[in-house]
Amino acid sequence: MPPSPPPAASASSDQSPFSSSLLAISLQAAVPLRVLAWYERGGSTSENLATARQFGALLVERGGWVLLRSEKEGETAALFNQLAEAIAILAFAPGGIPSLSGQRFDAEEILAGFIGIEQARAYCQRVRTHA
User: Would you list the domain boundaries of the chain?
Assistant: First the structure.
């Protein structure tokens, strides 16, 4: 029987500063790229939002493996990718969302760096009214 993952709550309280800063840096690189990918695909949908919300339950159950490498091949990478994707989708909410490291992920701000503030603002407003 495979070992149980550490609970997300205890993993965050027992994590080393290195692992938490590595996760923060990795998310700072991955989330903006995923936000840009959503922009290029025309934005997220209500189904994507539901999937991102459902990821919360998985994160509670297995989130410790995002910080502490899982013994199961590929599990840590899969969880990280799902986390980055969920944050990118939720970043389209007005005002964005706070991150694990205290940095806010806001799709409008992220996209402004790629396409300009006015176009980013108009795009995000359009996505929010259609989601």
Answer: 8-130
